[in-house]
Amino acid sequence: MLKRICTLILCLSVQMHNPVRMDMGKSKSILIKKEKKVKKLLFITTVLLVFIALFTGCTTPEPEVIEKEVIVTKEVEVEKEVIVTQEVVVEKEVIVTQEVEVEVEKEGPIEIAVIVKTGNSSFWQNVQTGAFAAQAELKEKTPKLSVTFLGAQSESNINEQINIVESAIDRGVKAIVLAPSDVTALKPAVDKAMEAGIPVVIIDSALDGDNYVSFLATDNDAAGRACAARLIEDVVAKTGSDSGKIAVMSYVAGVGSEIGRVGGFKDYIEQNSNLEIVTTQYSNADMPTALDQTTNVLAANPDLVGIFGANEPTAIGMGRAIEQAGLAGEIVAIGFDGNQVLADMVRNNTLQAIAVQSSFNMGYLGVLTAYQAAIEGVEVETFVDTGFLMVDKDNVESEEARNVLY
Q1: Are 392 and 356 in contact (CB under 8 A)?
Q2: N or C: which end of the chain has fewer CB atoms below 10 A?
Q3: Burial, 142: exposed, middle or buried (Cβ in 10 Å; 0-12, 13-18, 19+)?
Q4: Vertex 403 angle, CA 400 and 406, to 5°
Q5: pLDDT tens-digit profile of 41-83?
Q6: If we measure between CA atoms, which residue out of 31, 48, 40, 52 comes closest to residue 12?
Q7: Threshold 0.85, pTM exceeds
């Protein structure tokens, strides 16, 4: 149809530009009218042609419609596949995360907290050595076992030790091995642990009551009496008499070990001699304090015949004061505990004897007992005597002494 219209326009155009010849006699007006009609027809035809072309361009051919439908169908199919793949991946990631969290809960660390009076002495460091030796053995059965070792800045800082115990309870330790700095002040914290299902093993110093699973310590009353007996023996050997002035250099008043040890010493002196205890000093288990206190006691009592230093830092301070005063071997001096400094003082006769506890056993047996009670569910002994050995110049080099000196 478009082709016919184009032909018609062409013919009209030719006719318009090539008019039929007329006789000169015809009127010129007739020719003008005819040209106008042709132009009008040409205009209408051109408009019609443009309209048809526009209408034809806006119409989408059927093959194109079919092609778009096919493309849309493919896109929908691809999109479904992608969504399904994403859902599977997300589901797998969630499952893996849940499994990891459960695994961590099941295999977390199994902590036994060893809490001592202070870490600032070789006595307590030897307790630590024993505790870690037990850990090494027990890890073969329980690889996740962790033994932690904590102590206050000083033996007299009781509140700090209470806070350490409560912190251990809050983090859910399996058991606590405790050397209490005070016979009564630590009891509420121990009661709290036991109520929370955390077994508590007491070492070294007694605690009021019996709300704990076991108590491992030197029989401090017996050890104090043994020190008193040795002091009386040496005073008699040196002076020929069981009378005279003596002094007691103690550490922290109110501690269970001090009550038993110093109490046993004083009781034996009173019952078995005529010796007079002129003073009892408390160093708060601080060596420089003990040195100053002993220096003052020696100066104030030049006729002193004997002196007793009741724990490691106190005995060291006491021995150094005796050496500085030039009285080594001139006054009977008995110490307690057994690090290398004290062993050397025995060798050079500054101290005539020292009562040595097995601090290693306190740590070692303390952790073993806590493990048995908390993890194996074994009923343990309520009291274990870790023992002591009197070490003097005669046996300081013996194998028995080397096993307890540290």
Answers
A1: no
A2: N
A3: middle
A4: 130
A5: 656 666 565 555 454 444 444 444 444 444 443 343 433 333 3
A6: 40
A7: no
